[in-house]
Amino acid sequence: MQIAIQGFEGCFHQIAAQHYFGQDAGMLSCATFGELIRKVKSGEAGGGVMAIENSIAGSILPNYNLLQKSGLCVTGEIFLKIRQHLMVLPGQTLDDIREVHSHPMALLQCMTFLEKHAQWRLVETEDTALSARHLRQRRATHTAAIASKLAADLFDLEIVAPNIHTEKKNYTRFLVLRKTEDAVKEDHPDKSSVYFHTANTHGSLARVLSRIADEGVNLSKLQSFPIPGSEWKYYFHADMEFQSLDQFEKVVRAIRPMTESMQILGIYKKGVTV
């Protein structure tokens, strides 16, 4: 199976996809999340893995909009611990480094370590894994990259400083996406992603949330984003965790009349942390 991921070979999307689909799954690298969605919708990819939020940086808001409009089904999730490593060409050492290349977010995540080496020039790039690949392709001495261990393994680089990220509890949540007709029904699902839209009236959202709580369903995520073309009206993305499918279906029946529109994006099993 070919799996669409955003990023280049060796990126964190690939690590998440391999954990979920297995090491033998083929990867289709996409420059953008929109391209990822298109490859899954067209059938060029049998599934996709898309980052949706990070425990430090928060929600990736454009991806919620993409997800709602995609027509794809959420069939799973995975939580990946983000580990950043400093890598160089074989034979190079910390003393040889003059420049460090990586994505701006990765540089920020490692700033406490980098500030100890103020003589290094920091160079922002479009992708962590691409920085590692360019380091190998250009045989760039006196240069280091910050990327994943997978990138170091793929491009035969040596990690001279492992786990240099400042915040050790840094996780990214990825959603697994497939076309609805390709989705495999889970035997014992316990989570669902739902979009809904309530009237812009006093207490309308509170009534929906109260009913969800009354039914004993855990609301693990509630994200709002504006409805394009409207005046301060919002959709809500809700992730609900439940004990049984019957419990979830009861909640849906209860809150659907309270909403102006509602869309179930997928019913799946809660993800594991790797």
UniProtKB/TrEMBL annotation:
Gene3D superfamilies: 3.30.70.260, Periplasmic binding protein-like II (3.40.190.10). Its EC number is 4.2.1.51. Residues 193-269 form the ACT domain. It is an enzyme of class 4 (lyase). The keyword Lipid biosynthesis does not apply. Residues 2-179 form the Prephenate dehydratase domain. It catalyses: prephenate + H(+) = 3-phenylpyruvate + CO2 + H2O. SUPFAM superfamilies: ACT-like, Periplasmic binding protein-like II. Pathway: Amino-acid biosynthesis; L-phenylalanine biosynthesis; phenylpyruvate from prephenate: step 1/1. Keywords: Amino-acid biosynthesis, Aromatic amino acid biosynthesis, Lyase, Phenylalanine biosynthesis. This is prephenate dehydratase. It comes from Compostibacter hankyongensis.
